[in-house]
Amino acid sequence: MIYPFDKVFRTVKRIALHLRRSALSIFSIPLLTTVPLLLSFNVNAYVSEDGTSDNLVVVVSTNNSTSSLSKKDVIDIYMGRFNTFPNGDKAEPIDLSEGSAEKRVFYEQLVGKSERKVKAYWSRLLFSGRASPPLQANSPNEVKALLNESANAIAYIPQSDVTPEMKIVYQLNK
Amino acid sequence: MFISLINSTRLSLFILIVCSATVVSASDDLEFKFSGFANIGVTYAEGETYGFRTQLLNAGRDGFSLAPDTLLGLQLNTSLSTNFDAVVQFVIQDRSNNNFSNYLELAFLRYQLSRNVDIRAGRFSTNSYLYTDFRYVSQATYWVRPPLEMYSTVGSLGNMDGAQLSYTYPLDFGAAKISAAYGLSELNNDSDDGPFRAKYEDLYVLNLELQSNDWRIQGAYINARLNDIRFAGSDEVRLAPFTAPEIVRPVFVQVARAIIPEGERVSYYSISGKYYLDELEFTAEYGDYDSDWALSSASQFGYISAAYNLGMFTPFVTLAAHNRDSDPEIVNTQSLIASLPRDLGAFVALSIEPANEASKDASIDQRSLSVGFRWDFNADWAFKAQIDHFKIGENGSGLFSIEKGLGAPDEKTSFNVASFGITTTF
Hints:
The complex is a heterodimer.
Chain A: H1 5-26, H2 28-39, E1 46-47, E2 53-54, E3 56-61, H3 71-78, E4 92-96, H4 101-111, H5 115-127, E5 135-137, H6 140-149, E6 153-158, E7 166-171
Chain B: H1 7-25, E1 31-45, E2 50-51, E3 63-65, E4 71-79, E5 84-92, E6 104-112, E7 117-125, H2 148-151, E8 159-171, E9 174-191, E10 194-212, E11 215-230, H3 234-243, H4 249-259, E12 265-277, E13 280-290, E14 299-308, E15 313-324, H5 333-338, H6 342-362, E16 364-375, E17 381-397, E18 401-402, E19 413-425
Antiparallel strand pairs in B: 1-3, 1-4, 1-19, 2-18, 4-5, 5-6, 6-7, 7-8, 8-9, 9-10, 10-11, 11-12, 12-13, 13-14, 14-15, 15-16, 16-17, 17-19
Helix pairs in contact in B: 3-4
């Protein structure tokens, strides 16, 4: 017999929606101010500090032999499942600093997780000895420098920041 | 504090140092990274019967105490070359026995054979359950601590010394990881009468993990042979079958085998799952432990837990249980006395009763309800609070310590513990 898991999940989802509505009613005062802000946010685009909309892309150095990656490949690298590119070359992922708009949008679009959940996830991987988190760069310029230094580096940046020394291997909102 | 280096610990460190030195001498890519985690927690355990402890290897505490939930983890990650790396981790916490081995959590060298295959040698986690390999990292969980019914007994089988081969396979939904490990582990604990030691030899572990972005499933099987069990009086228990009168010799043989089952095997299997449904998080685990050891008897245990993320707040509720297979009595002394001449019966009962009492003190039979919340008040720090209500069966308080001079209560009891604290990683 095949157990109807889809029905179970649908039921659980209904409960979750009900709980969320209850939570909305309980916490309505602060949410009334934040919900309009959330609704106006376009999750497919990164909004830079000057307020213009841009797309995030995943890039490697032109010296890297990888020409393209799937979303699954990028998840495998950035979530520590594999520490190599699909061709077996070592991968050195680079993260932008905590609290940056790029990092928040990148992980929301890639795995649907908040920065806090991603941090908790990496605490698990690091302190279980499984993997080390991505190297942290503090600015797009530092990302560019790290990509120039290592052919194994991989990073996410706004599309407008891509230089001739970089190769786009994945576009997040495609 | 950190006193005697024991054999398997020494072996793990030796492997790590020698292999690292060999690789380092041929490497230009040496990199070090220090990191750590810390919990500062306060617990309040009510009553005067039980001492609260978060693991069997820790000391029991009553009233207000910082000891059960306060710990500091220090980790060194070293990249030795493109394919070699090493990890060493110490966790300083409230161990009742200060053997160095009880503070060394990880000390392994890893070589990556290919994209999918890696091999480790040294000390590493057995991954017996879903949280075994990061059970001290409170920043990675919403609880104050993982459910005691499942994790208090992880103890010396939480990690092992040996070698492990892992294969990770990419799948459409995520990845699958299969691991096989072989080695040994040692139990170093203290009882009221002094140190208690045992070895788990011929230890092998099989793990299967499946993970996607929204869920994680894990199964594990552990099997080991008990050996070299030592505690105050263990030599007398060993000798008893040879010195006892012929007529009662089988009884003393039975007691000696139950208390010191050297050569006997113990096994665990577990299945665990975690599922994220938007802001809801479900976790459930089940474990089955098979053993004829009267001081660590066969049982089943598990829990279900749910948490709901409300921005910075994550309230949660957990139901957990630990059920023993049989009542803790090695020999029924009443029927034994009735079958023997009066003087001999009294002598035998007097000799055997301490073994029965030890078995009752170690027996675990309890259920619990835990509620609490996590508050991420800062990007690096979280505050947690939790209340645990334990319902303990007759002679089933083995997860907690008993006040000196008292035996395990032979009636149903309850026990409440309130905990709060802060946690971080660095």
